[in-house]
Amino acid sequence: MPEEERASLKVVVLGGYGTFGRRLVELLSDEPRLTVVIAGRSVAKAEALRASLPPGAAIETMELDREGNIGPALAALDPDILVDVTGPFQAYGATPYRLAETCLRLGVNYLDFSDGSDFTAGIARFDAEARARGIFMLSAVSSAPALSGAAVRHLAAGLASIETVEGGIAPSPFAGIGRNVIVAIASYAGRPLRLARDGQPRTAYGLTETRRMTICPPGRLPLSSRRFVLVDVPDLALMPAMLPGLRSAWFGAGTAPQFYLGLLVLLARLARYRLFPPLRLFTGLFHSVANRLTWGERRGGMYVRLIGRDGEGRSVSRSWHLLAEGDAGPSVPAMAADAVIRRCLAGHPPEPGARHAAAALDLADFARGFAARGIVTGTRQDGERSWPLYRRVLGAAWDELPAPVRDLHRVETGRRFAGRATVDRGRGFFAGLIGAFYRFPRAGSDIPVSVLLERSRGGELWQRTFAGRTFRSFQREGEGRGACLVDERFGPVSVGLALVVGEGRLDYVVRRWSFLGIPMPVFMAPGGRTFEHVEGGLFRFHVEIDHPWFGLIVRYQGWLKDSDRDSEAQSSMKFTANASSADQSVSS
Q: At CA 385, angle to CA 381 and CA 387, rounded to 5?
């Protein structure tokens, strides 16, 4: 394939009507320079998908069985690229590269969605012949390792060494899980996996280890904290080879609902010690159950985190986060293949040869696909402990805040603000009781208000006084399940608040809460619209505290300005005025 912009390409997507193949076809369907052939065992399913697609690429269908005599049919079709999205790649049998070898013999460029470490590593055996024939053969052109590898290189920029890499994918419970995915996972549940740990090759067991992570691009509403369970992906074998000096590599899946994940972990641990039959015997049951447990957040995500050292030997922790709202998540695994094909159209195909896809793309190659599906990403780096609380939690989104909002939250030691407010109180008995207990302000308009912010015990003490009536809370950076949140404590109640930045304002969204340290259901949490913004050059606030059972408890809104700065300005004016009077006296 010459390195010049192509007028057209013919792409065969084998398994093109499956869970991920369908998504790839949908991504490619808007490109008029492509002819996309939806191929598989069922022409009826391929035709149904073609009928659902909008005008754009030329769409064809074809019956093509990977296990059959595929060579003559593929030769007659004469495609530029074949993409294998069938799987499960862990179960390709005694001749796993039969399709890849057919493409090599016919001179057809080859991509696959392999999620198996062994299969992906083995594609390199065809490298010399692929180079000689001038074609590329890329394995694992999917979220891991094509996207995860791009994220690792992005995070590693400027670091002298990388010691630890971990990552995870958290699918939406509404995404729908293909049977082949279940077959692949069940094939290694409780079975040994090879990975790097503490600088040595180690053996771990699939689905038996867990880690907790909160996926949270800066300034966005994070996913709920999830446990991720160890899965077999090519990254486990590839990252140590790609990053000399890497001591540990780990990759997990954060399936929701989490009790289902916990059940899989239990069964995998039992299977490891032969106290339960191999999970592959129950793939039909697991597939059925997984696609019926559709509750929770209709959103998914992915993260990659690394720990390394900078040029001065200091430890640095960085993470890359992806959030996919609604039903956009299942498109992410297909975006790497989409990006490779579009690079070919632009005259920038991969170099000839056979290899894994971990270094095939950069994050910029995914930008178009992310934007088209409303997918957001962001990078975090552990901040200096000396930074103000909100700057640490917001990360890069701190700079997106309006200057007056940043100024109020720039608490180094202590800050005082003063202004005016309007207060509304709930009318019910329990609303009044709660308001009296916490000394929330009484109802009124144009009430004088002062706010004292003091840095204390690694967090901030907030003291609010409305017309002489004071109530306090303590804010700190959340940990564990509350990571990426601001934890605000009002007496026995603690609330985990997400800081969401957008459209020139800072919104507070309740994500967790506890009473006397006991986690409580989120649907019972106190809530209400709470945000800060700038109007007329002034910092303005709108705070609501309500409860799903008791209704409105208190609402206060108004403006604030820095009273300490005003006092300094007034002192400066007095000094200037006195100096001026003295000068006049001397002159007289």
A: 85
Give the pair of three-digit tokens for residue 183: 């077959």
Sequence spans of domains, the chain: 143-327+374-381, 389-567
Q: Measured between alpha carbons, how far is residue 251 from residues 286, 303, 569 in Å?
A: 21, 10, 56
Give the ranges where 399-514 is alpha helix by DSSP (H): 403-408, 429-438
223, 323 Cβ separation under 8 angstroms? yes
Does domain 143-327+374-381 fall into CATH 3.30.360.10? yes
- For the chain, the straight-line distance linking the first and the last C-alpha, in angstroms and rounded, comes to 92
Q: What's the token pair of residue 360? A: 């095939």
Whole-number pLDDT of residue 289: 86
Among 260-264, 348-352, 513-517, 567-571, the least confident range = 567-571
What is residue 374's three-state secondary structure?
A: coil
pLDDT at 175 > cutoff 90: no
**DSSP label of 198:** T
Tens-digit pLDDT profile for residues 528-555: 999 999 999 999 999 999 999 999 999 9
582 compared with 150, residue with greater pLDDT: 150
Is 495 in contact with 526 (CB distance < 8 Å)?
A: yes
- The string of pLDDT tens digits covering residues 498-508 is 999 999 999 99
- Partnered with residue 157 across adjacent β-strands are none
Q: How far apart (Å, rounded) are the C-alpha atoms in residues 245 and 248? A: 9
Say which residues have a Cβ less than 8 Å from residue 415's Cβ, sequence separation at least 6.
408, 452, 453, 454, 562, 564
Alpha carbon distance 506, 527 (integer Å) = 16
Structure tokens at 53: 């697609």
pLDDT higher than threshold 70 for residue 564: no
Q: How many whole angstroms separate alpha carbon 506 and alpha carbon 542?
A: 10
Give the long-range contacts of residues 377-380, CB within 8 A, separation 24 or more. 377/217, 377/320, 377/321, 377/322, 377/323, 378/217, 378/218, 378/219, 378/220, 378/320, 378/321, 379/154, 379/155, 379/218, 379/318, 379/319, 379/320, 379/321, 380/216, 380/218, 380/318, 380/319, 380/320, 380/321
Query: Residue 570 in contact with residue 442, Cβ under 8 Å?
Result: no
**Structure-block tokens of residue 580:** 């001026």
Whether the pLDDT of residue 2 is over 60: the answer is no
- pLDDT, one tens digit per residue, over 58-101 is 999 999 998 888 999 999 999 999 999 998 888 888 899 999 99
Class for domain 389-567, per CATH? mainly beta
Spatial distance between the Cα atoms of 322 and 331, rounded to a whole number of angstroms = 13
**Residue 118 corresponds to which tokens in the numbers above?**
């062994």
d(CA 278, CA 262): 17
* Closest by Cα among 109, 97, 112, 111 to 135: 109
- pLDDT tens for each residue of 240-250: 989 989 999 99
Mean predicted confidence (pLDDT) in 566-573: 45
Q: Which helix (H) or strand (E) holds 539?
A: strand 538-547
- Predicted confidence (pLDDT) at residue 331 exceeds the cutoff of 90: yes
Q: Which residue reads 């699918």 in tokens?
A: 171
